[in-house]
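Title: Prediction job returns without error message
Component: structure pipeline
Severity: low
Priority: P3
Assignee: unassigned

Description:
Job completed but the reporter wants confirmation the result is attached to the right record. Sequence as submitted:
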Amino acid sequence: MRTTRVATKTGVSLKVTHTKTTYGVMSRAGLWMGLTFVLNLVWEFAQLRLYTLWYSADGIRIAWSLLHCTLGDVVIALAMFVVAGIMLWCVDWPELHPWPGGVIVVIGTMAFTAWSEWYNVYRAGNWAYTASMPMIFGIGLSPLMQWLILPPMIVAMHRRLGTMLFGRHNVQSTNSTYGFTRNQP
């Protein structure tokens, strides 16, 4: 197991020496992906009748599409998990910084989904909406709501399960501005 220590800068002393392990990062990302897979699979199944695929494809193609779309959702969510971690300089941001991290994930996933839905419906023709799909600016409302509702649920579940599985704050921020005191003359 590889361990990296955060160096103390001149004039700044950290209250706690923060340690980041590869295992801690990978296990938190794995929990994030597992929660994302389960919740998005349920959502994809629930919104399936809002797409023409439900009425035009056989069962095998529908099952493949559900799996394909759910795995795509996992990749999108994992990318935003990493982006939030980089922006907050914190691998366990769901426990330490759930609000700013959640906002980063929601904004990023909704922006990507708006583009992806537009591209796949109107440019590539990979899928189409039924008349029952609610729309906003020509984009299906259901996939947008998916990324407005599910990330906060994933963060909340990650906070609860992460604390139970990994203990309280095992992996801390690597940003030297968190938890420091300046040496006074």
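Comment from assignee: result matches the submitted record. Strands lie at 3-5, 12-14, 19-21, 135-136, 139-140, 180-182.
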